Amino acid sequence: MNNYLLVEDDQIFLFLHEHMIKIADPSSTIMTMQSSVKAVEYLEELIKTGQEMPDCILVDLNMPEMNGFAFLEYCSQHMAGPMSNVHIYMVTSSLYESDREKALSFSFIKGFREKPLSKEIVTEMHGLMLKGKAQQQ
Amino acid sequence: MINLKKIFNIDDPIERQGGESESILVSKGNQVHLFLLYLGGIYMVVFALINYYYDDKVMAALVNVCSLPFVLLAFYFFKRGWTIASKLLNLSQIIVVIILIFLVTRSSHGPNNGDSILVFFIPVFIGTMIVFQGKERKFGYIFSIFILGLMSMLILSDFHLGNDPAYSQKQIQRELALNLIGAAIATMMEIVFILLVSNRIDEELIKTNKELDNFVYSVSHDLRSPLLSVKGLLSLMKERPLVDEKSVEYLKMAEKSVNHLDDTIREILAYSRNTRLGLSLEKVDLKTMAEQVYEDLRYVNGENISFAIAVEGSTEIISDKSRINTVLRNVIGNAIKYSKAAVDNPHINVTIKRNNKNEVLVKVEDNGEGISKEKLEKVFDMFYRGTSTGQGTGLGLYICREILKKLNGTITIQSAIGVGTAIELTIPQEATN
Questions:
Q1: Cβ contact, residue pair A23, B239, below 8 Å
Q2: What is the ipTM score, two decimals?
């Protein structure tokens, strides 16, 4: 069973991605956060209380308060260890190659995907997560 | 005052929105401006030396003839697509060089006090009136008045009525030395002026361009977001059992329209960025990029198309990553779009190899629908669409051609109905700005 954390300020995309994950990976559990600040607080709480980190984090790029890059920057500086096995994807509507490059420059990021997530993309993510888990064992 | 800008239909480079073309206008215009000034300076020094040692009219005429190739060279530069403003600005320089030739020949019998400084007064004054406004114009006028003052002082130092007096060798030397000092001061002032103006305009343009880019970025994001959510909702609906066949049909139609609109936004953005922005050069691995583009696109189109890349030699080039990405996305995207419907075993083959002209050849072949001969000639035209199926915006291949032009590359296409299409890109190994 995979745990997903969706960080996205747009309610429709949250709804969409949640449903698409449920279709492609029915046994998964999904946590949604409409703000990356709240997501950071949530992840810090998980680390503090020794709970399991999500298997996959899907983070949007353009968000108020803290955008996707700031979120990744914060994660790389403050929780690099616990994040090492988490599959992080940036999911955005940006068409800019520079955004893709910047996102992929973070060592722990697994990919840069365009919105909206399709069933095929979620299936691929799911497959990679299973592969990663098998390698860890 | 007569508005020369209106007469010559010249836009102001600062007022216009946009970036690179204006930036090129200013910097290239100034390059030639400087080039001609140096030419004028060298000319004066050579003339002064000849006059000093030989006092020979024949030699002076010879120098005039020798300067002609430089003038022709300057004309050659004008043919490289600059706007009328920069042409006019620099045309005034040509006129000045011609005046200088005339003055130098005329005065080859004796000192040439002040006359040669006209070379600085005329271009600065004309250029200031035509091209600049605001601070630049004011600064240009001050500089012109300064040059005029300097010229008057030199003329007054040797003012006389009637025929030229018989100059002694010492007098000629003194006047020539004065003349050269005056010209040197004026040259330095002119260079400082151009650099100041150029830097200020470049800064303004960079700022405007950055603001415009941020604006386009925000607009494209805000336009696409609701569109992509509709796209997502449509694909979500497809996953649910639908009531009847008609609903499925309507859904497909809606999806097609949304995709079309999304493609249009994407391509207008690519076109706008290609027109406005200068090249941003860095290392690009064509193989990795082609694979990444295919990975992105295969999910969008959802069909199982076999994709293979064959490589000969290094696939790394120095180029503009974003532009190369746009080209590959268009070309591979077309191959996917037009492959799937036509055959049972659709495939796309990409070959990347180098030629002996420091270029990389990228060939993208598919076994799709193909394009008829009469349509093939028009596929690179703006807004030309080869199909009536509603696919494509008619901008994709046009943008590819424009991008490759900018990179000094080429794009060619071969196709046959029912056989497939092959697009070949020639990309310089090292692009230059």
A1: yes
A2: 0.82
Indicate the residue of A23, A93, A120 with minimum beta-carbon distance to B225: A93
If asked whether residues B188 and B337 sit together in one domain, one would say no
Residue with tokens 């005429």: B61
Residue written as tokens 């093939």?
B376
Nearest CB partner across the interface for A10, out of B217, B225, B321: B225
Least confident of A97-106, B101-110, B177-186, B202-211: B101-110
User: How far is B376 from B373, CA to CA, in rounded Å?
Assistant: 5
Token digits of residue B322: 């974003």
State the total domains in chain A. 1
Nearest-CA neighbor of B325 among B273, B375, B369?
B273
Q: Tokens 């497809």 label which residue?
A: B238
Q: Which domain holds residue B355?
A: 279-428
Cα–Cα nearest to B124, from B146, B138, B141:
B141
pLDDT at B404 over 90: yes
Please report, for the domain that includes residue A61, its CATH number.
3.40.50.2300
Which of these, B182, B184, B169, lies nearest to B51 by C-alpha position?
A: B169
Q: For chain B, what is the domain count?
A: 2
Reported as a pLDDT band with limits 50, 70 and 90, residue A131 is confident
Subunit contact B225:A101, Cβ cutoff 8 A: no
Residue where one domain finishes, among candidates B170, B187, B210: B210
Given B157, B176, B210, the domain boundary residue is B210
Q: State residue A45's pLDDT score.
A: 93
